[in-house]
Structure formats: C-alpha cells, structure tokens
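Onboarding guide, step 5: your first structure request.
Type a short instruction followed by the sequence, for example:

Predict the 3D structure of this protein.
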Amino acid sequence: MAGVRGDDSVMQTRVLGSSLSVSALGLGCMGMSEFYGTAEEAEAIDVIHRALDLGCTFLDTADMYGPFTNEQLVGRAIAGRRDDVVLATKFGNERRPDGRWVGVNGSPEYVRSACDASLQRLGVDVIDLYYQHRVDTTVPIEETVGAMAELVAAGKVRHLGMSEAAPDTLRRAATVHRITALQTEYSLWTRDPEDNGVLETCRELGIGFVPYSPLGRGFLTGQITSPDDLEEGDFRRHNPRFQGENFQRNLDLVDKVREIAAEKDCTPGQLALAWLLSRGDDVVPIPGTKRVRYLEENLGALDVKLTDDDLRRIDEVAPVGAAAGDRYPDMSTVHR
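The system replies with structure tokens like these:
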C-alpha cells in the first residue's frame, strides 16, 4: 500500500511559470471554513502545521471563503512560519460579511482594496501568488491585470494568477503581465482543460497549471457512497453530480478507479492524484482536507508510480466527459 507520507520523506517540488517553486502537491484550505460541512479551527490548524512539517508548503485560500474567515485562519496557522510557506489567495468573488453574494468584481479599485484587506487578514506583508478568482466580463481583462501588476510593483504581491479563465482571456492577460499560474477544476471526472484548449494555452504561454477539486470534491476518494454521507449544509448536496441518476453513474466510475487502485496497492484518491501528477511537471494539484489522516494519505500519492499501461487503463475508465452531471448548479441567479 502506498500508505502515507512520513516525516522522513523528501517533498518533491515543481515550478509554476518560470520561477515560482512550490511543493508538488499543495493544500486547499477552503473546506476548513465553508462549503464542506462543519470544521473545527483547532483541527484545521493542525492540518496546516502537519502539511508544513511534511514539506507541503503551497497553501491555497481566498477572501470569499468564509467569507473572509479562511484567510484569518490561514494567517493564524502560519504565524511564525511565514518563510516556510508559498501563500496563494484570490479576489474577485465579492461577498458581504454575512455571506451574501455581491457578484464578480474585477475593477482596478476593487483589486487594490481586496489585496490590502487580504494582507491584513493573513497577517503578512506580501502574497506569493495572487489570483483573479473569476473573470469579470464587464471589465476589460487588461484593466484588471494592470491593477494586479501595480500590486507586484508595489511589493504587495510576487506572482499573478488567474482562475477559470478561457484561452483568449489568458492570452490577453499575458500581454499585460506574466501570468504564473492558472487554477481551474481538473481531475479524472473533470478533464475539460484537455478538451477546451486551456491546458494547451497554458503550456504555450509558460503558465503553470493548478488543479482544484483534484479528488472530484471527495467523490474520487471512494468514501462517499450515498448522498446521506454528506452533512446538512454541505454544498455538494445541491451539486448535479451528487444527485439522482448522476450519483450512481459517477459511483460506477469510481468503482472502476478503485479496481485499478487496488492493483496498484494504493487508495482511489491516491491514484487520482498520481494521475494528475503524471500529466506534466507544470501541474500542481491542491487537494483540500480537514483531517490530518487524509492529508497524509493524499501526500502518499507522490509515491505512486503509474506505468504507460496504467495510464491507458485509466483513460479507458475515465475518458474526457465520463462524469455525469454539470460541475456546478445553475449559477444564473447567484450574482446580483
């Protein structure tokens, strides 16, 4: 069994863009504050500390998670250990303190104010990687990235990133300032970046690729066998892929992944992460978890080696478009 990563394991590193060195697997912190049911702050901080101890130093948060409380949590966790961390956060999905959605905001004024607020919540002087969380179609991307570039010039941000941006948008953004990383959903059940030109464009422009939800929002771990396994308040209960016939079809897909994982003597989640790591040295997944044991299990994916035959079989059971259901519920009424 691939097992878990121990303290004596040496963490692999990868480079995003041309110069940002990060741990080969990062840690998504979103679920520690919202969306995935309840979480305990003390346990969440333990997870972050354990990640840093094991060399998993690429931490991912955003101002909208909580909202705002996830950045504060990460800030408390890294206090006194800032030099150990490559810190990524995001702006652009504007929310009120009570959680209400305002909309996507890419105005230069908002870029500046959001960055200052994030720096304060995180308790740091500089953000290593600052993403535009979603593209604001009402503001030219050149204006948004221009304001982000000013943050680099001011020493508040080291590298710029984008999230869920289309190829043409990436190209336009890159004419204003170097884009170090693109973050978008990518996993065995969301292979869209291979099919829509995004991954190809990133490589053309020298942009690193950071897959979020690399475990299919937990589905690919094999630990979710019924919608009842999800807590009340867990947003996945309203996700199309976790509902009705889609749930069973996706469960069938996971069963096939589980079979290959058993032959490789690893968990389904480790196989899913190892597959992503095999897609290229410019790919750095950021699985999230609220439990130390799952963190250690995820990091065990670094020890799973996939052969060409393994990759062929995985392609057969989880081809592009294999997952049933849309990635998100209808969001047309969310942003007001």
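Each response can be followed by summary notes, for example: The two ends are 49 Å apart (CA to CA).
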